[in-house]
Design a protein that fits this description.
With 750 residues, this protein is an alpha+beta fold. 61% of the residues lie in helices and 7% in strands. The chain is built from 23 helices and eleven strands. The strands form three sheets. Strands 6, 7, 8, 9 and 10 form a five-stranded antiparallel sheet that branches. It has a four-stranded antiparallel sheet with strand order 2-3-1-4, sandwiched between helices. A hairpin with a 5-residue loop joins strand 8 and strand 9. The longest helix has 35 residues. The radius of gyration is 30 Å and the shape is elongated. The chain starts with a helix and ends with a helix.
Length: 750
């Protein structure tokens, strides 16, 4: 591995014009594809294997032309104080609004409140239901404008009017904080490298990689039915890992220059050593993201594969374009330590490239912060270990109160018309009105379909928690009917979930008697089924992803205990991150600071998505930091000394990488999409816990306690495993044999 990447790095350094041309051409091609691609439609949210999805598919078959996936809107009217919606003037205003709404070319139907029993008992609130032929993301802007204009005219007439439903659904925006995150990353890079040129390389390559990835997603969005959040999440993860991977290679390049090597040789060795770590770190991220397919939710699978593709591009760019750009930069990228001249230190205080390194373990006063911290940890490993584990355990406590659900209009900020419409409907018709259940009765196998419909409706009326049940509405064939059930609890409550299960249980008894199958669907039932499906898939997903990565890390570290420790540390950090998400988004702690206007259940896909992404990122830091420790151990240092050496060379860079990744993720907290906001916060806090508590404290403490046992591997397994040479031992051996420049050139051509 190291030898191949060494050749690749030197080749890219020499053929930099060709390499740069390839990547610019790919970026241009992706950009043209994105610009010429048709606009993406609404991503199909299907949940194979669930009862709600089965009922939805049945509706499309038995009720053709009903636009089951069409957008809906509820225009909610409230009369002025002291008046009622049944007053002549208010009624005339509503009827005029209904007539205006009916004129749209994409409108399928509009239900008049006065003929559809859509006026509250006290007469103060009414609503008109609007059904469209196309989905919310496919509605033309003129249709949305007509909806808003009709509502505004009713407001001008003196009524309070709000609009709910998905007809006003908009593409989520990330906000200015995303740019702030990139700016913070730039500042950290400048501080780390002390050079604008060196700092600009990771940013430039990361932006090119994300540009190719996101443009490709945009170009394929319509054909593959990719949702709007797919490109945002790919951008989020691609930026973070792209900057980090390039950062590690540039840092190793500067270290190689400080050893006195020529620039082409330094580029080759940087890609051969740090690049090997980048490859395996990227593989763990890709495994974690592609593994989301195990859940069998198409939307989540597409998100994972798209993000994994962006990560793969980031790895390839780091391995090829970084050495090419280093060739262009020339002497403007200084060796490690050379920035001291520009910061005011004298030349005498700066070690020469070929000067021997000071022995940090001997207590030299100029030891860097990473060395001093690692020395402290190896002296007090048990105390550091206990403090880290107890701290993460305390942060994870809120996760025991985790409630899962999917966002609806009730989770929108109170400043939106969707949320105000939701509140008005709750006020006038009860909290369950915003989450009606649709019961689909398939009586094709029944001898008396109409009796079966009536039996189901009667059975449901007798259940606890039911406010209203509409009469069965059969299709033209008379073999299928829909029944709308209004719960007495809000859509995201446990009581509503219990009611869904109670209806399904009752349907089993009815099927045994009449032969008619009863299915529960609707957005509320779909959300419940999604949550249960995700919960059921979490353990298999963990086993698959952690198991594959565990095997990969055994190959990288040639150890059993180091990968095991890495996996256990990940579990600590992800549980602590979930606890923080619950505290902010469910309990409301610091919600104002995070821009969370409305607390509620954590999104159903958040735990499993966090597990996948955080595991991949956690293994990044494990690979980058511990490979330097293993490199020192393989080259003859004692276990504790190797830990300190690993921190001496890697702590500063890993710290910078973690801060950059946190800044990039935190930048997405400003998104208008609640899912993106929550994931941005969750990933940022998870990186903090994993990088600074697990990898910087718990990992060196455990390695210090284990000593030589940390690197133990059964002999039979050692013989069976391939030697990937992440430490670059093959390069070191070649150096020791005295290979000169001519031999190196022959090696590259081989």
């Amino acid at each position: 591995m190291a030898t191949f990447l060494y050749k690749l790095g030197r080749l890219a350094f020499r053929r930099r014009h060709f390499v740069a041309l390839i990547w610019v051409a790919l970026l241009t091609l992706a950009g043209v594809g994105a610009a010429s691609a048709p606009p993406a439609g609404n991503s199909s949210f299907s949940i194979p294997g669930t009862e709600a999805q089965k009922a939805f598919d049945l509706l499309e078959q038995r009720f053709p032309g009903a636009s089951a996936d069409g957008a809906t809107a509820r225009v909610v009217f409230k009369a002025p104080s002291g008046e009622k919606m049944t007053d002549a003037g208010n009624k005339a205003t509503v009827e005029k609004t209904v007539d205006e709404l009916s004129d749209g070319s994409e409108v399928a139907s509009v239900a008049d409140p006065y003929t559809g029993n859509a006026v509250s008992k006290d007469g103060t609130i009414a609503y008109a239901s609007v059904k469209y032929d196309v989905s919310g993301m496919e509605l033309e802007e003129s249709t949305k404008d007509a909806l808003e204009d009709a509502a505004q005219q009713a407001r001008d007439a003196g009524l309070t009017v709000e609009v709910g439903g998905d007809a006003l659904q908009a593409v989520p925006e990330t906000g200015a904080t995303e740019v702030i995150g990139i700016a913070v990353a730039a500042v950290v890079l400048v501080i780390t490298f002390g050079s604008l040129v060196a700092a600009g390389l990771p940013l430039l390559t990361a932006l090119i990689g994300v540009g190719i990835g996101v443009s490709s997603i945009t170009a394929l969005a319509s054909a593959l039915e990719l949702g709007s959040t797919t490109s945002i999440l790919a951008m989020m993860i691609g930026l973070a890992v792209g900057i980090d991977y390039a950062l590690f290679i540039v840092s190793r390049y500067r270290a190689e220059l400080a050893e006195g090597r020529e620039r082409e040789e330094a580029a080759g060795r940087a890609v051969g050593t740090a690049g090997s770590a980048v490859v395996f770190a990227g593989l763990t991220v890709v495994i974690a993201l592609v593994g989301l397919a195990v859940v069998n939710i198409p939307m989540l699978t597409k998100m994972g594969i798209a993000a994994a593709g962006t990560v793969a591009i980031a790895v390839l760019i780091a391995l090829t374009m970084i050495p090419a750009l280093l060739g262009y930069a020339g002497r403007r990228v200084k060796p490690a330590g050379a920035k001291g001249r520009r910061l005011g230190r004298s030349r005498k205080s700066e070690p020469k490239p070929d000067a021997p390194k000071p022995d940090q373990l001997a207590g030299q006063p100029k030891a860097n912060l990473g060395t001093r911290w690692a020395s402290f940890v190896v002296r007090r490993p048990l105390a550091v270990l206990l403090l880290g584990v107890i701290g993460l355990g305390a942060a994870a406590v809120p996760a025991t109160s985790l409630e899962l659900g999917l966002p609806d209009d009730g989770s929108q900020p109170t400043s939106t018309t969707q949320r105000r419409a939701y509140d008005l409907l709750s006020e006038g018709f009860g909290p369950g009105f915003n989450g009606p259940l649709m019961v689909v009765v398939d009586a094709k196998g029944s001898d008396a379909p109409k009796d079966a419909f009536d039996d189901v409706a009667g059975e449901i009326k007798g259940l606890d928690g039911v406010v209203a049940v509409t009469p069965p509405a059969p299709n033209k064939g008379g073999d299928t009917a829909t029944i709308t059930v209004i719960p007495d609890s809000k859509p995201s409550s446990v009581q509503t979930e219990d009611l869904v299960h109670a209806i399904r249980d009752a349907g089993g008894d009815i099927e045994a008697k009449t032969g008619a199958e009863t299915l529960v669907t609707g957005s509320t039932a779909m959300n419940i089924d999604v949550s249960e499906k995700l919960n059921d898939a979490l353990v298999p997903y963990l086993v698959l992803v952690v198991g594959l990565a565990f095997l990969l890390l055994i190959v990288v570290f040639r150890s059993i205990l180091v990968p095991l420790k890495a996996a256990l540390g990940f579990l600590l950090s992800v549980m602590a991150a979930l606890g923080a998400v619950v505290a902010v988004f469910q309990w409301g702690w610091l919600s104002g600071l995070m821009g969370v206007e409305e607390t509620g259940p954590v999104m159903s896909m958040m735990p499993i998505f966090m597990v996948g992404v955080v595991f991949g990122l956690a293994m990044d830091y494990e690979v980058f930091l511990v490979t330097r420790m293993r490199e020192a151990y393989v080259h003859g240092e004692k276990p504790n000394q190797a830990v300190v050496t690993g921190f001496k060379h890697g702590a500063r860079v890993v710290t910078a990488a973690a801060v950059i990744m946190m800044a990039v993720f935190a930048g997405f907290i400003g998104s208008s999409e609640s899912m993106v906001k929550m994931i941005g916060f969750g990933l940022a806090i998870a990186v903090f816990f994993d990088a600074f508590v697990v990898r910087m404290a718990i990992v060196p403490a455990v390695l210090a306690l284990l000593g030589k046992k940390a690197w133990w591997l059964p002999k039979w397994l050692d013989r069976a495993l391939p030697n990937v040479d992440v430490e670059g031992e093959g390069l070191r051996t070649g150096d020791e044999r005295g290979s000169g420049p001519d031999e190196d050139r022959e090696l590259v051509r081989a």
